[in-house]
Design goal:
Blueprint: E1 6-12, H1 16-24, H2 26-32, E2 38-41, E3 50-59, E4 62-75, E5 80-88, E6 96-107, E7 113-123, H3 126-158, H4 162-193, H5 197-206, H6 211-234, H7 238-259, H8 270-287
Antiparallel strand pairs: 1-7, 2-3, 3-4, 4-5, 5-6, 6-7
Organism: Oceanobacillus kapialis
Protein name: DoxX-like family protein
InterPro entries: DoxX-like
Length: 303
């Protein structure tokens, strides 16, 4: 099975020497590249390629340890630079066995430096490994490469440290996934699947309708909540959703207290629960400003 190389390209408004330094020095490289936890250069003699070792944390205390060697060159014709790379790992738990690629740094007339990479690799575990790579791993590592490129762009252009960008990125998405779960669960389980008596009772206290109508209305409300929860996963402009929550949570809290004021003495009642969600919405709202994204990068040559 022929594997399509991973390609990422992004213009960065910076000096080529600053970009070269940030990508070639191990202590700087490991700060912005999501694919590596640590990079260590090994001693070398003059004229030899620069060899290095790297580690990547994959969770649950496991690390992938690998080797690599790079050669940097300077092209006087267009002032571009290229760094070729050969890498691999002997660890059997790694899907990647061995690969090759390059980085290219091309100064443009508008003051930008076009920073691009293309690389490919061989996998372990036969046809199963190839299938996992095609369906999951290759899209994931390509996305991580593109996200890392956007992080270094913001670092060199705006001075924002990579750790701060990644903190905001993961805060943004963890919050969005949490809200998706909350809205989908509360719409699906107590309203659509079970039509919980408490849901029906609160609705009938606010709107005096018969039991069958109350069931239909509760299910409609549940469906709307599920759709809103899905919006947290697929709608790109998350700040719009936060605005809706800033409006919705106070009204939901007042409505719940009006329908069942006795619940204020219960643990985890509407006041404390919705109040916590309102504060979490504010945290998420703040985290959406300037979130790095892989979508800023070109992923195919010629795009």
């Amino acid at each position: 099975m022929k594997r399509k190389p991973i390609y990422v390209e992004l213009p960065i408004h910076t000096d080529i020497d600053a970009l070269w330094k940030a990508t070639q020095r191990p202590d700087l490289h490991e700060k912005w590249d999501l694919r590596f936890s640590s990079i260590t250069y090994l001693p070398k003699k003059e004229g030899e390629p620069q060899r290095f070792s790297y580690q990547t944390k994959i969770g649950f205390g496991l690390r992938i340890k690998g080797w690599g060697e790079s050669v940097g060159s300077y092209q006087a014709k267009d002032n571009a630079r290229t760094s070729s790379l050969h890498f691999g790992t002997e660890q059997k738990i790694s899907l990647i066995r061995e690969g090759r690629g390059y980085w290219k740094y091309k100064p443009e007339n508008d003051g930008n430096v076009t920073f691009l990479t293309q690389y490919n690799y061989k996998t372990r575990f036969g046809k199963l490994g190839s299938l996992v790579d095609m369906l999951l791993f290759r899209p994931l590592i390509g996305w991580a490469t593109a996200l890392s490129f956007d992080v270094i762009k913001r670092w060199l252009e705006n001075g924002e440290q990579p750790w701060a960008q990644y903190t905001r990125f993961f805060t943004h998405w963890i919050t969005a996934i949490l809200f998706a779960f909350i809205w989908i669960y509360h719409g699906l389980v107590p309203k659509i699947i079970y039509q919980h008596p408490a849901e029906l009772a609160m609705l009938q206290k606010v709107f005096p309708v018969d039991g069958q109508t109350a069931i239909i209305l509760v299910m409609i409300i549940g469906a709307l909540e599920v759709l809103f929860g899905l919006g947290w996963l697929f709608y790109r402009k998350k700040r719009h959703l936060y605005v809706l929550q800033f409006i919705a949570f106070p009204f939901l809290t007042i409505g719940a207290i009006f329908a069942a004021p006795e619940q204020l003495t219960a643990p985890f009642n509407a006041l404390t629960f919705n109040g916590a969600l309102l504060i979490l919405s504010w945290i998420g709202w703040m985290a959406t400003q300037g979130v790095p994204t892989a979508k800023n990068c070109k992923r195919k040559q010629g795009d």
